[in-house]
Amino acid sequence: MSLSSDGGETLRARQIGALRQLVNLNEPAINTMVSEPVWKVLIMDKFGQEIISPLLPVKQLRELGVTLHMLVGSKREPLPDVPAVYFVAPNDENVELLCNDLKLGLYENFYLNFISPLSRPRLEILATAAVNGGAISQVQKVVDQYLNFISLEDDLFVLKRYSEASPMSYYAINDPSTSDTQMESMIESIADGLFSMCATLGLVPVIRAPKDNAAEQIAIRLDQKLRDNLRDARNNLFAFESVRAGQLNSSRPVLIIADRSADLATMLHHTWTYQALVHDVLGLDQNRVSMPDKGKKVDYDLHCGHDRLWTQHKGSAFPLVAEAIQGDLETYRSSKDEIEKMRHAMGMDGTDADAAMSSLLIDTTSKLGSTVTSLPQLLEQKRLIDLHTNIASTLLEAIKVRKLDVLFELEQKLLQKGSLDAPLSSLLSEITDKDDMLRIVLIHYLSSDQISKSEVEELRNLLNNSNADGSALKFVEKLRSISNLGRGLIREDHSGAGTKTVSMFGKLLDKSSKFVMEGVKNLVPRKHNLPLTKLVDSVCTPPSSSVVGMSSMASNQTQTEDNLRYFDPKMMHQPSKESMKLRPHLPADVILFVVGGGNYVEYENLVEWGHDKGVQRVTYGCTELVSPSQFIEQLSRLGGQL
């Protein structure tokens, strides 16, 4: 069970618990070692599959009695002696498929679980189908699950898996052809997802959101949904809230809904931390990455639960990760050598001795000391080392070919308005990848307080001469002009950014290592808060009582209060400005949700802020995780419409 730093359950742990109960025929999941599970089939739609896939691997589904899992739209044979558990979205297409299954009596019993609430008219359609098919007695459960979000980490969730045609994307929100009806539907869907997140946690948050954008409309809708549910005594989803809040010192969560336009540069930034690099370069998706291995594509699951290196170093700078892999490899080799010596000393050479060794090692763990205690553990350790060696080697190759370390350092200088080693135009001319060049140009434009028309024209010519699409720059120019020359949406504060060079390649310069880092800069990012983390900090940090803090910090916090709406679903009326400013202590539970797409850099930055501040539980959420290339594509499409 995943726990937050205070021992309370995380959002991911609670969603896993809900899914296990759902699969277990809506009964609390018990230890399968104690009793035999009920064997059943699991039927999902695409969204249900995307929710379950990062949380319950096939092995765990089998332990829960799932013998077969299928998509609801696939061709399925009747299994009249087996119960079926459904986990689908309550749309017209799925309801029609369920009606068909009921009429045909495909399964022994039906357990119908809907990802989000099923409307009354659709429920009546299902009831009619059950009557006509004589299947009323076979329908055992019809349950609204409130699980329409995807938990990727203990402290990270998204509402949808990324897709080009996503109705929740930054492109969809800013597309001038998006109708009012489509926008209303998008706002409703996001509010539904956030409501489900709150219901899964079992806590009613205090909500903060900036004024005059989609985030404010979502906050209004979410506030109303929470109020409506709290008034419904029969179906109140937060009846045990006080019990759950007790795990976090009776502190209610603060949910800050932010708009992507508040910080575009972070979405484009070349990254230098492990998880963000895997997302940017290798296309990390649903905690999985596809990699070439011995001539074929292999899917790697990077959230298997017992991968210590990933857990400890996913947010570390890449050179530190390479050193950690090298260290694990040396530990593995020493463990293997010690086992081989013991095998030889006991006259157990040869492959036939493995079974005997496994039992023998149980009695000789004291001799092995801190090394692995069994051959299966040793093999698993080797598998994880091979996995990360393969990923890190591929990343290293991309770093060297595209000079990602140089680009990362350049962008850090641009963001903190530092001096460059050469004119930007000459630095850009050395970049070979078109997307890399466009990212640098956009970051330079976004981070400049003032930029002349001649300089913009020069940047545009550089892009044209390199056959790079300048449509994204055109859109950002338009956005900046709308926001009053950089004083509104597009004013991004990245102060404190930068890098430091450290000597960390002692082990890695060995020619026998796969990680020869020659030619790669020894960079570690300096600690600093990104714009949305600064927003969270200003909302959550109590005003300083010191004289020094009163002048600088108080003015920033006053500005933040003026720009943000405040919603408390538990209060009859909206609070006064004076009561909103009363923050006696840092909240124990903080959630940041970004409308229009998020990224791993922002997620890692927020988690690091929470750790430094001592916040007990910090959670980052977004409509979807978007890689820099995917975000550039959205900006280019928007610019192409101008």
TrEMBL record:
Family classification: Belongs to the STXBP/unc-18/SEC1 family.
Name recorded for this polypeptide: Uncharacterized protein
Alphabetical list of PANTHER family matching this protein: VESICLE PROTEIN SORTING-ASSOCIATED
Any one of the GO BP annotations: vesicle-mediated transport
Pfam family, one: Sec1
Database matches in InterPro entries: Sec-1-like_dom1, Sec-1-like_dom3a, Sec1-like, Sec1-like_dom2, Sec1-like_sf
Annotated Gene3D superfamilies: 1.25.40.60, 3.40.50.1910, 3.40.50.2060, Syntaxin Binding Protein 1, Chain A, domain 2
Annotated transmembrane regions: none
Species of origin: Mesorhabditis belari
Domain of life, per lineage: Eukaryota
